[in-house]
Design brief:
Structural class: alpha/beta
Shape: globular
CATH superfamily of the largest domain: Periplasmic binding protein-like II
Helix content: 40-55%
Oligomer: single chain
CATH architecture of the largest domain: 3-Layer(aba) Sandwich
Radius of gyration: 19 Å
Number of strands: 8
Number of domains: 2
Order of helices and strands: HHHEHEEEHEHEHEHEHHHHHH
Strand content: 5-15%
Largest sheet: 5 strands, mixed
Strand order of the largest sheet: 5-4-6-3-7
CATH class of the largest domain: Alpha Beta
């Protein structure tokens, strides 16, 4: 979204877009349902969760596959944690309660015989506050981003990573799909119905930004991101883009085969998703992206 704005793609598509930063996924959904935002940048899990509650927020574009999240042990953890099943009784940092990172921890621990009651989830954000929580030992482990992980590993060699989504064969083995739509754009179904051309133009602009990412080296991409959304070390941003570049979608399409995988992950944390039939067509659509 920020890249599409910086490159002028929204303007070229006839759109006047204001990007408002919010502190977490719950606040994004709150703004969307309350009408103070038209479109949200969030996760397909949220669309599924809302559908289970009878409120329809439809994903119309996938920006990123895989999670972009690792689970890393704090250098000052209260004990030596070597695997996910050793997080029983631990304090684990997530971006915010009920966020995708929180759902991810619950899902991964469920595969090791643990439940959400076996550990304590603490909100630590995903940026500087996340790094601080890890380095100060305020959490035993945390879900973190590539940028933060690289800083921690540089400052604390030998830092233990409990979940690496890019590990060979690891991702598909755990989630059942090779491409999991983790970062998406969505809007209320009724708003989409009234603003179809706007949605189509917005999707086109973002897909252009995705193709820019696909066809340019990381150092060029990083230089185009607005300064307020880069880290203080351009080298880290470039390295993060190098590692994760292949995970960006090139066409915005949400794979139909991924719906059940996303629902299964969400169901571990949300009772209503487990109990409710959810129509996939009300949670995502590819109508507004060019599938040619």
């Amino acid at each position: 979204m920020h890249l599409a704005s910086a490159l002028g793609y929204f303007r070229e598509e006839g759109l006047d877009v204001t990007i408002a930063e919010m502190p977490g996924s719950s606040k994004i959904m709150e703004a969307l349902l309350g009408g103070s935002a038209d479109v949200g940048a969030g996760s397909l899990e949220q669309s599924i969760q809302m559908a289970a509650q009878g409120q329809y927020v439809q994903t119309f574009l996938t920006e990123f596959f895989n999670f972009g999240f690792s689970i890393v042990v704090s250098p000052k953890a209260s004990w030596h944690v070597r695997s996910l099943d050793e997080l029983r009784g631990a304090t684990v940092g997530v971006s915010s309660p009920g966020s995708q990172s929180h759902f991810l921890v619950n899902f991964l621990l469920s595969r090791h015989g643990l439940t959400s009651h076996d550990y304590s989830a603490v909100a630590v954000g995903l940026g500087a506050s996340n790094l601080s929580a890890l380095e100060q030992g305020r959490v035993d482990a945390a879900v973190t981003t590539p940028n933060v992980l690289m800083v921690v590993q540089k400052r604390h060699p030998g830092t233990s990573v409990l979940f690496d989504p890019l590990a060979e064969d690891n991702f598909e083995q755990v989630f059942g799909v090779a491409r999991y739509p983790s970062h998406v754009l969505y809007a209320r179904l009724d708003w989409i119905a009234r603003n179809r051309q706007t949605v189509r133009s917005l999707a086109k602009a973002v897909v252009r930004a995705l193709r820019y990412i696909a066809t340019n080296p990381p150092v060029v991409i990083a230089s185009k991101v607005p300064a307020g959304f880069r880290s203080l070390d351009l080298g880290f941003d470039v390295e993060a883009l190098r590692v994760w570049k292949s995970m960006y979608s090139q066409d915005g399409v949400t794979p139909g085969t991924s719906f059940e995988a996303v629902k299964a992950l969400t169901a571990v944390s949300v009772d209503t998703v487990r109990r409710t039939y959810i129509d996939p067509a009300k949670t995502y659509t590819n109508e507004f992206v060019d599938t040619r």
